[in-house]
Amino acid sequence: MKTIAITGGIGSGKTVVSNILRASGYPVYDCDERAKILTAISPEIKKGLISIFGENIYGEEGLNKKLLAERLFADAQTRTSVNSIIHPVVFADFDRWRSEQNSDTVFIESAILYESRFDKFVDEVWCVTAPQEVRIARVEKRNGMPRKQIEKRMASQLSDETVLSKATHVILNDDETPVLPQLLNYFPNI
């Protein structure tokens, strides 16, 4: 089974590419969405996060996502510690999911493909990119997040140059260049 990663920074348009692939019948594993679910249900993750942040990281309504995000994007060491707890659980979940798929090709969407080291388990990497101002505008509109917070998150991710240099294929998603024809160049079966 061929495994292709879809990566790119926040607001680059990874989900646009994933949605086209899903609409074409391909299975796509969304690391961010699964990580959100797993942080709510995994005893291993819950125990690890409590060991780092204390009991107040989980409240009556579950994980305190705002507090977690504030701490994650404020300190690289904290981010590394949290990722060392979450990534193995997400990878095990992905591995189980992949084994259940009835397809010659599966896709994994991950904003932090290289930081999580998931790139070691894929055959190709498709990097979705867009100009920084386009990305910021998208995230402001989608999440209602202030510009400074978006820039902080962007700074916490690998640079576009680094990710692009490692990619098998690059997909420009600048709101002017159509995405589908680019995908068809790389994967004609869509």
UniProtKB/TrEMBL annotation:
GO terms for biological process: coenzyme A biosynthetic process. It comes from the Bacteria. It is an enzyme of class 2 (transferase). One of its GO terms (cellular component) is cytoplasm. It catalyses: 3'-dephospho-CoA + ATP = ADP + CoA + H(+). It is found in: Cytoplasm. CDD domains: DPCK. Keywords: ATP-binding, Coenzyme A biosynthesis, Cytoplasm, Kinase, Nucleotide-binding, Transferase. This is Dephospho-CoA kinase. It comes from Candidatus Caccoplasma merdipullorum. The lineage of its organism: Bacteria, Pseudomonadati, Bacteroidota, Bacteroidia, Bacteroidales.
